[in-house]
Amino acid sequence: MLTAPFEYRRAERVEDVIEWLSDETRETKILAGGHSLLPLMKLRLATPAILVDVSALRELQGVQEDGEVLRVGAFTRYVELARHSLINQKASLLSQAANVVGDLQVRNRGTIGGSLCHADPAADLPAAVLALEAQLVILGPNGTRRESAEAFFMAPFVTTLGRQEILAAIEIPLSTQNARSTYLKRPHPASGYPVIGVACLIDAIHNQTIGTARLAITGIASTAFRASAAEAQLVGGRLDAETIAKAASTAAINAPLDDDEHTEYKQQLVQVYVSRALQQVAAQED
Amino acid sequence: MPQVMGQALKRHEDIRLIRGRGQYTDDMKLPGMVYAKMVRSPYAHAKIAAVHVAQAINLPGVLAVFTGNDLKDELGLIPTAWIPPNSDLKMTPHPALAYDTVRYVGDAVAVVIAENPYIAQDAADLVQVDYEPLRAVTNPRDAVGPGMPLVHQEIDRNIAFHWSVGPNLDDVFNQADVVVKQEFRQQRLIPNAMEPRAAVAQYNQATDELTLWVTTQNPHIHRLLMSGILGIPEHKLRVVAIDVGGGFGSKIACYPDEVVVSWAARRLRRPVKWTETRQENFMVTSHGRDHVQEVELAGTKDGHIQAVRVKAFSNLGAYLSTAGPGVPTILFGLIVNGAYHIPQASADVYGVVTHTTPVDAYRGAGRPEATYLIERMVDRFAATIGMDPVAVRELNLIEAKAFPYTNPFGLQYDSGNYQETLKIALDMVDYANLRQEQVQLRKDGKYIGIGFSTYVEMCGLGPSEVAGAVGFQGGLWESATVRVHPTGKVTVFTGASPHGQGEETTFAQIVAEELGMPVDDIEIVHGDTARISMGWGTYGSRTTAVGGGAIHLATQKIIQKAKKIAAHKLEVSESDVVFHDGVFEVQGLPELRQLTFQAVALDAYLAWSLPEGIEPALEGTAFYDPKNFTYPFGAHVAVVSVDTATGDVRLMRYIAVDDIGNIINPMIVEGQIHGGLVQGIGQALYEGAEFDDQGQLLTGSLLDYAVPKARFFPRFETAHTVTPSPHNPLGVKGVGETGAIASTPAIVNAVMDALSPFGIEDLPMPLTPEKVWQAVQQAKGGRA
Ligand SMILES: Cc1cc2nc3c(=O)[nH]c(=O)nc-3n(C[C@H](O)[C@H](O)[C@H](O)COP(=O)(O)OP(=O)(O)OC[C@H]3O[C@@H](n4cnc5c(N)ncnc54)[C@H](O)[C@@H]3O)c2cc1C
Questions:
Q1: Is ipTM over 0.85?
Q2: Does B707 sit within 8 Å of A1, measured CB to CB?
Q3: Which residues of chain B have a CB within 8 Å of the CB of A2?
Q4: What would the pLDDT profile of A141-160 be if each residue is shown by its tens digit?
Q5: Based on CB atoms within 10 Å of each CB, which residue in A34, A173, B74, B104 is the most buried?
Q6: Preceding peptide of B632 cis, ω within 30°
């Protein structure tokens, strides 16, 4: 449990980071909260030659409203996501998900940027950013680009992030700020990571017709995914028992699960957790 | 002077431990210390063709790299220390470093010694080993089959020993009205003490002494075994266990790592430290349990149990560990009748070697494996004949008037009222109403279950005569020296080796009570072969029964001597002196003259005027061999609900009514019970080591091996009855393992009770949600 030798650099400017990342001879890695990267290094599954501490970069900090979006800096830690009043009000789903990541020590260190860039299929936050239809603000040698969360996650531990790119912020549309939401997690008894985590966001109250329905599921497939067919079924309907049951079984049938001896059970979990998440949202309306 | 025994005093040791001021082996820093890293086999079974060390040796900061070949003629083999009688046990030659064959993933083949642990790790990664992988076998039942790869060429069919006890019961079973058969898999568990193992060795050239600081539950056993392996005479070898962060049996064994470190320290003339990683802890520190059991129970239709018969394949891993062979034999086979009057019983045990981590004692050690099978069989029997499991228990539990009770194998159960604990438990859980509630809930599709475990266990390991008879290669008595200092303060030296159980407090309570002095005036010293003459350590819930017994006797010797000195000073005859609450006074005339214990202690040391024939100083030593084992017992009840949508088992209530004899510190007792319950329930619901076909451990980290968390449990409801054990002077029975022994079957019985509407009779542990859900699905499908 001891890392291989590495050099530590503290970045003052984004430009430096981009330049350092271009070094083809020495593997260079960004260090955020370190709660995924350092365990890998201690197991020597990762052996970067240079670690770049990005905690001082202004571009990665802060939470503020910016026109139509809420901008959350990539270096925002879970504990801030969970407590920040703007996030609580405008994107409560993100607070709820952050609040159940790991334990207090993990939440005091881990960052949203680190979690998303690490792209662990068992991470909690991907479900929340998918359901919030967040945009990822990415800095690179060619300036700034934006990408939807949906497109960002490609495969387990693989994103569209280029070798020289840095995730700077996450932009969450304010259009869903008044919607009801919940994040329902089934923690693994050993790791505490989600066996399944369902992020659910619905814009209807009481007997209103559902206009927007978002269901994003993490932990159970090779990447987090949107349960689009189930969402489509919800839109135009009401949050009653029958609709919930239908949506839940649609989500289960369409879930992109690996085919193995656990598939049946995983399908069952998708059905149960989607159904329970929707029931939770429905219960909030009273 | 208020009474100290029986008080819930806070633990003295916690003052340092919870403030980070304890001293664990890894905290040791010695001048010139260097660091060892083991190179371990990634294969469960392979020939070692070559070990290339040049690159590693050339790394700056590396002092040496030693391979199995370097060590094999320098060191003896690591022996097992338990040879069950009439078992035809074959030794499994265990070199400290493997040199021609590796036999489990983690088997060490080389050691790197370097100036710091980082360099040691870097260099270990540079050691290249050419392996020729071979087929492996991991399951004990499979391993005895024809054509299976052999773990040791000299051990036919991988059967290291065959041990049986009890008569042939074919007739009883052939004639019985009811015979219930069931196979159980006692899955393998990984102990996971909070502190991984560590060893630091230092050789002193001036005295030619080697000191080994090591995470052990039994420093004197370590010294004895290490002396033989290292060829260092016992008087030149000192073994010290400072603070030890839990063991649960996994720190009984003598491991290769400390042997290698000791040898290297002498060779290099530098202190050498080795500290296990958590990964290594999973891989190489002994595991527990791992049986395949075929069990049969014979009974009458009206609920009388007539006989129980067990055939067990016990997986001992690649090498026989220090206490490994004793666990599935003596500590298991002799008590398969449990707390019941079962006239006939037999056990037939195959000790099997496989290409897996060695298996040794794990909290309960043998007794959980026995308790599980009999408690589950009682429930299966009850279901078969359509009786309430409580009624079957009431009918078959040993009666209070039967004590001392001799079980079918000759064990003498000491004392108790088993029915009483069951009665209390039934009251606490409100059994009759709960059963009605269960019926009601089932109508709404909700499934709760009630499970019982009316257990007895044997612990307080001793006496030595029995140790010899059962093949334990050591004694099971305990030593104590109680040294009173001139100022009347007291140091107690115990041969027991507590490592988290709290005896620094409970032992002080014993002495404080008997000498009538504050606990703060008493220091308990343990875990150092240079300070303590001899001892056998802490395991088998023996420390208070045997170690505490020794302290009591040593303290009594002191009181006897002090009384003589007091009488001399008071100028009365000894028989006229009484001692209570720390004061000597003349019988019937307390106002005449009094002497405090402290004053007498000073007199003893000044020795200006001692009675004829009395030596100076005030110190008592006792070597106490108990009369027999002790037998804690009790009744546990688990109430669970099963969510059939997810298979989740929720523990709603847990009731533990235990009789552990006299209680010295109720808070510590409570803590021991809680900890034991958590580990026992962990086995039922969460824990289980798994290997793949190649012998790779699939559950090799805390990411996938579920050690239970506090949040998994409701508040435990505990109660006690107190039946003092007649087998030791304190009347204590032992509490370290009861929870782990009793709780596992209570939980599984409860889950099976919940699932009984689906016709599910048994499921293998751990009862994970997926397993439970699959079973329910299957049952539903089968019905439709
Ligand atoms: C005990 C424990 C329990 C945990 N439990 C959970 C859990 O229940 N749920 C869960 O979701 N997670 C859990 N985690 C993981 C935790 O959430 C990590 O904090 C998170 O996965 C990574 O965030 P970080 O800030 O620590 O990133 P780091 O570990 O510092 O980095 C992770 C990766 O992202 C890269 N990176 C970081 N920031 C950027 C950036 N701005 N731009 C580009 N690349 C970047 C790094 O180079 C690295 O490759 C747990 C971790 C631990 C140690």
A1: yes
A2: no
A3: 117-118, 121
A4: 999 999 999 999 999 999 99
A5: B104
A6: no
